[in-house]
Structures are given as structure tokens and as C-alpha cells.
Amino acid sequence: MLRIASLLFVIFILSGCGGFFEKQEPACNGVALLSGQETVVQIYAVRKWANQTQYKAGYPFNWQWVNKNNFIRTTCEK
Fold first, then answer.
1. Cα separation of 64 and 55, whole Å?
2. Class (C level, CATH) for 24-78
């Protein structure tokens, strides 16, 4: 009986983390010039902040908000 209760508890806890593990799809792509090489970067969100456009960029920007000027071109809508 204790084993079943423990199993149900673990299932309950893991079900609460379900949304945390969902993979987010990229909104668009961008090309950044890093160390003299063009690198394709996936962009997950776009925002306007302090009159500047920022992208939430994946690797190599580690999913941080970065300025639009870091990219030489993007497929994001203006």
C-alpha cells in the first residue's frame, strides 16, 4: 500500500512539471556574424523594449534577450 501511495505521489509531482519540459518552437531565424563567420541562430520571441527591437535568441546567445543589431539578417516580420 505504501508503494502505491509513493508511486501516486511521484506521478502527481511529475505531472505538475509537464509544462516546464515542453519544447518551444522558434518564431523565426536570424544570421549573426560571430568571429567572422555567419552563424544561423533560432529566435524564439521578439519584443520592443526602450525603442529597440530585441530577440530572444537560442544558442550561441543562450536564450537571452539580445539587440536586433547583433544580426545581419532575420526572417522575423518587421
1. 8
2. mainly beta
